[in-house]
Write a structure and sequence with these properties.
By secondary structure, this protein is α+β, with helices and mostly antiparallel strands. Helices cover 34% and strands 33% of the residues. The protein is built from five helices and eight strands. Strand 3 and strand 4 form a beta hairpin. Helix 1 packs across helix 2. It is globular and about 45 Å long.
Amino acid sequence: MILETDRLALREVTHADLDFLAEMMADPEVMRYYPKVNTRDEVREWIGRQFTRYAEHGHGIWLVLDRHAGHPVGRCGLAIQQVDDVPEPEIGYMIHRPFWRRGYATEAALGVRRWAFEVKGLERVISLVRPENLPSQGVARKLGMTPERETEFFGLRHLVFAVRRADVNQAMARG
Protein backbone atom coordinates (compact mmCIF):
# COMPACT_ATOMS: atom_id res chain seq x y z
CA MET A 1 0.00 0.00 0.00
CA ILE A 2 1.14 3.51 -0.80
CA LEU A 3 -1.27 5.22 1.56
CA GLU A 4 -4.45 4.66 3.52
CA THR A 5 -7.31 6.92 4.55
CA ASP A 6 -10.22 6.19 6.85
CA ARG A 7 -12.08 4.18 4.23
CA LEU A 8 -9.64 3.72 1.36
CA ALA A 9 -6.30 2.18 0.44
CA LEU A 10 -4.22 3.25 -2.56
CA ARG A 11 -1.69 0.96 -4.20
CA GLU A 12 0.14 0.63 -7.50
CA VAL A 13 -1.94 -0.80 -10.34
CA THR A 14 -1.07 -4.26 -11.65
CA HIS A 15 -2.05 -6.24 -14.70
CA ALA A 16 -4.56 -8.05 -12.46
CA ASP A 17 -6.53 -4.76 -12.25
CA LEU A 18 -7.22 -4.72 -15.99
CA ASP A 19 -10.81 -5.99 -15.77
CA PHE A 20 -11.89 -3.33 -13.27
CA LEU A 21 -10.02 -0.48 -14.98
CA ALA A 22 -11.24 -1.50 -18.44
CA GLU A 23 -14.84 -1.55 -17.22
CA MET A 24 -14.51 1.86 -15.54
CA MET A 25 -12.64 3.52 -18.42
CA ALA A 26 -15.15 2.18 -20.97
CA ASP A 27 -18.12 3.69 -19.11
CA PRO A 28 -19.43 6.69 -21.10
CA GLU A 29 -20.57 8.50 -17.94
CA VAL A 30 -17.24 8.05 -16.16
CA MET A 31 -15.39 9.21 -19.28
CA ARG A 32 -17.78 12.05 -20.14
CA TYR A 33 -15.11 14.75 -19.76
CA TYR A 34 -12.35 12.79 -21.50
CA PRO A 35 -11.84 12.69 -25.28
CA LYS A 36 -13.36 9.20 -25.52
CA VAL A 37 -13.95 5.93 -23.73
CA ASN A 38 -11.02 3.51 -23.71
CA THR A 39 -10.77 0.06 -25.23
CA ARG A 40 -9.35 -2.82 -23.23
CA ASP A 41 -6.09 -2.55 -25.20
CA GLU A 42 -5.88 1.20 -24.46
CA VAL A 43 -6.34 0.50 -20.75
CA ARG A 44 -3.60 -2.13 -20.93
CA GLU A 45 -1.33 0.57 -22.45
CA TRP A 46 -2.44 3.02 -19.71
CA ILE A 47 -1.38 0.47 -17.08
CA GLY A 48 2.00 0.22 -18.81
CA ARG A 49 2.39 4.01 -18.62
CA GLN A 50 1.78 3.84 -14.87
CA PHE A 51 4.57 1.24 -14.54
CA THR A 52 6.86 3.71 -16.34
CA ARG A 53 5.77 6.53 -14.01
CA TYR A 54 6.42 4.37 -10.94
CA ALA A 55 9.92 3.57 -12.22
CA GLU A 56 10.80 7.11 -13.31
CA HIS A 57 9.12 9.22 -10.60
CA GLY A 58 8.37 6.84 -7.74
CA HIS A 59 4.66 7.52 -8.16
CA GLY A 60 1.83 7.62 -10.66
CA ILE A 61 -1.87 6.88 -10.67
CA TRP A 62 -2.81 4.22 -8.13
CA LEU A 63 -5.76 1.90 -7.67
CA VAL A 64 -8.22 3.03 -5.00
CA LEU A 65 -9.69 0.23 -2.89
CA ASP A 66 -12.43 0.15 -0.29
CA ARG A 67 -10.34 -0.87 2.75
CA HIS A 68 -13.12 -2.84 4.43
CA ALA A 69 -14.67 -4.60 1.43
CA GLY A 70 -11.33 -4.97 -0.37
CA HIS A 71 -12.68 -4.19 -3.84
CA PRO A 72 -11.54 -1.39 -6.16
CA VAL A 73 -13.62 1.79 -6.45
CA GLY A 74 -11.45 3.92 -8.74
CA ARG A 75 -8.04 5.38 -9.38
CA CYS A 76 -6.19 8.36 -7.91
CA GLY A 77 -2.61 9.45 -7.66
CA LEU A 78 0.14 11.87 -8.47
CA ALA A 79 1.36 12.06 -12.07
CA ILE A 80 3.85 14.44 -13.62
CA GLN A 81 2.11 16.16 -16.55
CA GLN A 82 3.56 18.52 -19.15
CA VAL A 83 1.38 21.62 -18.83
CA ASP A 84 2.36 24.51 -21.09
CA ASP A 85 5.77 22.86 -21.50
CA VAL A 86 6.36 22.74 -17.73
CA PRO A 87 6.37 19.50 -15.69
CA GLU A 88 3.63 19.78 -13.08
CA PRO A 89 2.69 17.28 -10.33
CA GLU A 90 -1.01 16.61 -10.88
CA ILE A 91 -3.41 14.92 -8.51
CA GLY A 92 -5.71 12.94 -10.76
CA TYR A 93 -8.84 11.14 -9.58
CA MET A 94 -11.51 8.96 -11.14
CA ILE A 95 -14.12 6.94 -9.29
CA HIS A 96 -16.22 4.26 -11.00
CA ARG A 97 -19.87 5.19 -11.36
CA PRO A 98 -21.30 2.57 -8.91
CA PHE A 99 -19.29 4.33 -6.17
CA TRP A 100 -20.10 7.97 -6.97
CA ARG A 101 -21.44 10.40 -4.37
CA ARG A 102 -19.76 8.74 -1.40
CA GLY A 103 -16.88 11.21 -1.06
CA TYR A 104 -14.30 8.70 -2.31
CA ALA A 105 -12.68 11.06 -4.84
CA THR A 106 -12.21 13.77 -2.20
CA GLU A 107 -10.95 11.33 0.43
CA ALA A 108 -8.46 9.69 -1.95
CA ALA A 109 -7.28 13.01 -3.39
CA LEU A 110 -6.80 14.51 0.08
CA GLY A 111 -4.67 11.49 0.95
CA VAL A 112 -2.60 12.02 -2.19
CA ARG A 113 -2.24 15.73 -1.43
CA ARG A 114 -0.99 14.91 2.07
CA TRP A 115 1.42 12.30 0.63
CA ALA A 116 2.70 14.76 -2.01
CA PHE A 117 3.45 17.42 0.61
CA GLU A 118 4.61 15.27 3.53
CA VAL A 119 6.37 12.36 1.82
CA LYS A 120 7.53 13.86 -1.48
CA GLY A 121 8.10 17.33 -0.03
CA LEU A 122 6.42 19.09 -2.93
CA GLU A 123 5.60 22.78 -2.58
CA ARG A 124 2.66 22.83 -5.04
CA VAL A 125 0.29 20.40 -6.76
CA ILE A 126 -2.31 20.91 -9.46
CA SER A 127 -5.41 19.25 -10.88
CA LEU A 128 -6.47 19.68 -14.50
CA VAL A 129 -10.24 19.95 -14.76
CA ARG A 130 -12.46 20.58 -17.76
CA PRO A 131 -14.51 23.81 -17.27
CA GLU A 132 -17.79 21.90 -17.62
CA ASN A 133 -16.79 19.20 -15.11
CA LEU A 134 -18.37 20.73 -12.02
CA PRO A 135 -18.09 17.62 -9.80
CA SER A 136 -14.30 17.46 -10.32
CA GLN A 137 -14.04 21.20 -9.74
CA GLY A 138 -15.80 20.59 -6.42
CA VAL A 139 -13.22 17.97 -5.45
CA ALA A 140 -10.36 20.33 -6.41
CA ARG A 141 -11.85 23.08 -4.25
CA LYS A 142 -12.16 20.66 -1.31
CA LEU A 143 -8.41 20.09 -1.71
CA GLY A 144 -7.94 23.82 -1.14
CA MET A 145 -7.22 24.38 -4.82
CA THR A 146 -8.19 27.47 -6.75
CA PRO A 147 -8.17 27.96 -10.51
CA GLU A 148 -5.00 29.69 -11.71
CA ARG A 149 -5.57 29.78 -15.45
CA GLU A 150 -6.89 27.97 -18.48
CA THR A 151 -4.78 25.78 -20.74
CA GLU A 152 -5.13 23.31 -23.55
CA PHE A 153 -4.29 19.76 -22.53
CA PHE A 154 -4.56 16.88 -25.00
CA GLY A 155 -6.46 19.17 -27.33
CA LEU A 156 -9.12 20.11 -24.78
CA ARG A 157 -9.62 23.24 -22.66
CA HIS A 158 -8.83 22.72 -18.98
CA LEU A 159 -8.70 24.81 -15.84
CA VAL A 160 -5.45 24.51 -13.90
CA PHE A 161 -6.40 24.26 -10.23
CA ALA A 162 -3.50 24.56 -7.78
CA VAL A 163 -2.68 24.61 -4.09
CA ARG A 164 0.57 25.26 -2.27
CA ARG A 165 1.73 23.41 0.80
CA ALA A 166 2.12 26.72 2.65
CA ASP A 167 -1.54 27.57 1.97
CA VAL A 168 -2.68 24.19 3.33
CA ASN A 169 -0.49 24.62 6.42
CA GLN A 170 -1.89 28.12 7.03
CA ALA A 171 -5.46 26.87 6.68
CA MET A 172 -4.77 24.04 9.13
CA ALA A 173 -3.17 26.45 11.60
CA ARG A 174 -6.29 28.63 11.47
CA GLY A 175 -8.38 25.58 12.24
